[in-house]
Amino acid sequence: MSYRKKVFIIHGKGMRDGMGKESGGDLDTVASNVFYAVWAQNHLKEVLGREPVYGQDYAFDFVNYSEGLFHLVIHRGSDIYLPDFPIDALVPRIKMILVTEEEAIKYLNEFTHLFTEYRRWIADYSAVISPGLKAVSNQIFLQYSKVIEHQESAAIKAGNNLIYLFYNLAYLNIVAKTTADPALSSVIGEWVDQIIQAATGADLDRLRGRLSGATESRTKQDLIDIVLDKKYDAAAEKRYILALLKAAEEDSSTHWQIENTPALLILAVETVAYAIRGLKQIRELRLDQVSPKLTAKITEDIESVRAALKNYFTDLINMTPQTPMGDEGVESAIQNIRTCLHSLVEITEQIKNPRPPESKDGLVPVRLMVMYEASGIAVSNIEIVVRRLEGSGAFVLPDGTEDAGPEVCQVTDRNGLIEVFYRPASPDEAYRFSATFDEMNHIYFPSEINPDAETSGAYVEEETDAFADPEGIDRAMKVSLDLMEREIKFLKDHDITIAAIDDHHPYTPAILNKLQELKEQGYIGHIKLSSLPRGEELPVDRQKCGADLIYEQYVQGKPWDNGGLSKLRNLAHCQDLAIERIDLAMQLSRVIGLKHSKIDMVLTLARTLKDEKSADQVMSLAGWASGVKSFDGKLSKVLPLTEQAIGHIVLGCAGEEGEERRIHILAVLPPFSDPQINVASAMGYLLGGKKYPCDYFFYCYDSSMLQMRKSNKEDFTFDLSLLAQHLGCRADGGHSGAATCRPDQNPAFPRRIFSKINDLNFLQYLWYIGERIASKCGLDLIGVMPPDMQMSDEQNKILERMHENSLKLELTGPNPKSDRIFVLFVKAPDKTPDTPVSYLHVYNDVRRRTDVHYLVYCQTGLNSIVIHNVNDPAKRLNVDRLAKGLGWSEDAGTEWVGIASGRLSKYIPRKSRWLNKEDIYRLCDLFGLMTADQSGYTIVGTVPNRMEFLNIRI
Asked: E strand or H helix at 613, and its extent?
C-alpha cells in the first residue's frame, strides 16, 4: 500500500509557507497537533524506514470556523486529520446577494476562478517564489473578500485583470529562479522586481495620496443639508436622505480602504467602484437638480481619481519590455501583463460614460446569486423562494411563462444565479418581494430592509424552531447537510480523504448522522466524539478536550510518550474545560495570542518536550518568555480601555425558596488597541483585577461576533451552546460554559439600528441581547446598566467640567407639586487619548446623581443625540418618540434609550450643531416643545450650573 501524506489541521488561521496570517486558535488545538506531530515523527519513521520530512511526509494547515474545507484541495493525495473542531462548524456558510448588474455575475465568477487558481499556483511554487511577490500575493489573499463585496462590473473586472497580472508575474518570477540562462534570469528578475516595487513602494504611495485626497470629500453629507433646506415632500425627502446617507457611508468606507490597504488590488477596485457609484448617483438621483455646484464637485473628484488611476497604469505599461526576450512562455506572460494593463487603462476611460442598465419590456428583474461566504465561489443547485409581499402583478419565469404567484421557486444554475422578472399590474404599482434559501436569511426588494421589522420596543420574535430536536430537519438543516456532503465528496474527488475527525463539542444529531453516513460510504475514515447532543452535558469527570482524544490514541503508552507530553495534555485539559487556572497554560496561551506562528509552536513543543522538567522550562527553552513579558507590559497599558463600553445585563427568576434570584451578565465592547485584547485577558482584568461581579461574561466584537463565557461555576442558568444558536444562527455554538455566535446572522437582528455599535448605542444593543435571552429562557429582564466604574482623578475632573457647563431642565406634568421630571443636557466632553471618557462614563456618573431622571447627551456636530432614562422607573417620557422628534423618522430606540440623528433634524438650525452656549438653550427649548406635545410635560425651569449662563436665556 502506497504511503499518503498526513495533513493535520489547526483550528483558526495561520501562516503556512509564508502565506496567511495568525489569528484564533487556543492551547487545546495546538496541543492536539503537538501530539499528532510527535506521532508523525516517530510512527512514520517506522512506516517509511527513514526520518519523515516535514512538508513532504506530513504538514499542517488551518480550518476556520464555518469557512468550510474546500481550500484543502491543494493537498491532493493526502489524508486529513481534523482534531478539536466542532462538527457543526464543518458546514460552510453561504450567502445570497441581490445582483443589480447582470454582467457582474460573469466577472464575480471569473474572479473567484482566477483567485483560486492563483492561490493554488503560489502554494505549489512557494519554495521558489521570491519574498517580494509572496508578500504582494499574501496581501491579495488576505483582502480578496473586499472585492466580492462589490457589484460594480467595472470594479470586479479591474480586480480580475490585476489577479491575472500577478499570476503572470508569478510565472516570470519562477522562470527567473529556475532558468539555466543566467542572463535571462537577471533581466526577468530585475523587471519583475521593478513591477512589484511599483505595486508596493513609493509609486503606490503617491497614487494613494491622490486618491485619498479626492475620496475624503464630504460632498454627500453637504447634499443632505441642501435636501433638508429645499423642503421636498416627505416621500422624496426620505428617499434622497436614505440614498445620500448610504452614499456617504460607502464613500467613507472607500476612503478608509484607500488610506489603509497595502494591496494594489483593493486600491484599484475601491477606486473604480467609487467612481461608478458616484456617476450612477448623479444620474439616478438627479443631483444636478439638487445642487449644480456640489454635483460639479462630485464630478471633479471622480475625474481626479479616474485620471490618477489611468496615469498609474499607463506608467506600468511603459515599464514593460519593448524587445522580445526569453522563450514563447516568457513572451506570452509579458504580453498577458501588457493586455491586463491596457484593459485597466480602458476601464478608467469607460468610467467617464457608464452605460445605464437595460430595461426589458417594462419588466423588473429579480436577480439573485448564492455564493460561499468565505470564497465568493458560486453555489449551484440551491432552491430560492421569491415571495411577492405587496402588489398584484405576475412573475415571468426564464422560459417566458407567467406565474401569478404569490411565490415562485427557482434553483441556482452553475453560476449560482437565479433570474426571474416581475410584471407590475400597472406602471405605478407599489410592489415588494422577499427571497430566501433557508427560511432564516431573507433579502427584501426593492427596499433592502424589511419594512415590517419593528424598530422600537421589544426585539423579540415568536420562537418557531427547536434547535436540539433530531427529528426537526427543516429547510435550513437540509441545506446545511447538502453543503457539508458536497465539500467532503469534493475533496474525495480530488484524492483527499478525511482520515479522522476527533472532537468534544456538543453537536447537532442530524450533522453527526450525515457524517456517519459518509463514513459508511468511504468518504471519512474515523469519527470519534466525546460529547453529547446540544443541550446535554457529560459529567465533569467524563469530559475530555481535543488534546485528550489525540493523546490517548496517538501518544499514550507508546514508546514516544513522556512526562512532558503528559503534562501538556493536562494543561490543555484543565484550561479548555475551565477546571483550573494554571500559570504555564496561561503563558502558552499568551504565545498564541501574540500571533506567534502556530505551526512553529507545534513543532517546537514536539521537539522540546522530553520530560516534565522540559515542560516546566519550555517558555525559556523555546525563547518565548521575553516576548510574553514584553507583551504583558504593553497589554497592561491598554486593558483599561475595556471600560469605555461596558454594561451589565441583569436578569431575574424565582429562587428555590421563592426569593428572586438575579443573574448578572457583564458585556464588553473590545476597544481598538495595539496590542489587541482577547477575551481571556479582558476577563482577567475586569473580573480578576477590577472585581466586577458577574455570572457570565460576553465579549461583543461589534455585532459580528459574540464570545460567551460562564464565570460563576455555581450558576447553571444557561447552556451557552444552545443560547449561541438563539442569539445567532444554527452554525453557532460551543460548550455549555463557553460558546461563540454571530448575532447579525440571526433573522430577527435589527440591522438598521445596529449596523455599527459603539459606546453610544452599546447599552441599547445590550437591551436587545437581554430581551432575547429573557424571552428564550423565561426570565425577567431587570435592567441594563454600566457597572459602578472606578474612574481616575483626571476622568473625574473632565466630568466635573462637563457638569459645570451643563443645563438641568425641570418639567412638570398634570400635578406640578408631585409630578416633576429633571432632565440634564450635557455636551460630550472632548476626548483625549491619555484620559478617555466615553458616553458610558458620563451615563454612569449621571446615574449616581439621584436628582436627574433623564440624560440628553449631545455630540458636537449633532451626529448623535442620546436620550437616556437614567432614574425614572415609571418611564414618563417616551424616549423613542423624542429621538424621532429631535432627529428624523428613521431614528429609533427602546423604552429606555433613544438615539437621534440631530444633523438630519428639520428643527435644529445648521449653525446650532456646534453647540455653543446659546445652542444648548435652543435644544432645551425644542426638547420642551416636544415633551409638551407628546406627553404633556412642560418646562418650568432651566438651571445652569454656572451663573454666567443666566443672561443667555432665549
From this structure: helix 612-616
